[in-house]
Specification:
CATH class of one domain: Mainly Beta
CATH topology of one domain: Jelly Rolls
Order of helices and strands: EEEEEEE
CATH superfamily of one domain: Jelly Rolls
Oligomer: single chain
Radius of gyration: 14 Å
Helix content: under 10%
Structural class: mainly beta
Number of strands: 7
């Protein structure tokens, strides 16, 4: 079964989840030929080992706190803070406080 994604013109709610954070799973909000937008939900202590994205990437913390390691540095992202990386840049993520993050990946056509 296909995973439903937003269609052009759909309004997507990316507000902080607040008390619903603990019961929410990560999900792809939209995906087209050139863009993918994912709400990543992480619990404190969870880690995503070093990996690479297939396109340029923005990481926008909506709530909570994550530690994002890239370009030889550790970046602490809290609500309202955003980071940009070029395609293929190795990076890793560690969740410090339960968090939701908006990932936008620009895919190569």
């Amino acid at each position: 079964m296909a995973i439903p994604h937003a269609n052009p013109g759909d309004v997507i709610n990316v507000s902080p989840l607040g008390t619903a954070l603990a019961g929410t799973k990560s999900s792809t909000l939209l995906k087209s030929g050139q863009i993918e937008v994912v709400r990543l939900v992480m619990v404190a202590g969870k880690e995503i080992p070093e990996h690479q994205a297939p396109g340029e990437l923005t990481v926008h913390c909506l709530e909570g706190k994550i530690e994002f390691t890239a370009l030889g540095q550790r970046h602490e992202l809290t609500a309202g803070r955003m980071l940009f990386l070029h395609a293929g840049e190795p990076h890793a993520v560690k969740c410090i406080e339960d968090a939701s993050v908006l990932l936008t990946i620009l895919l190569k056509p």
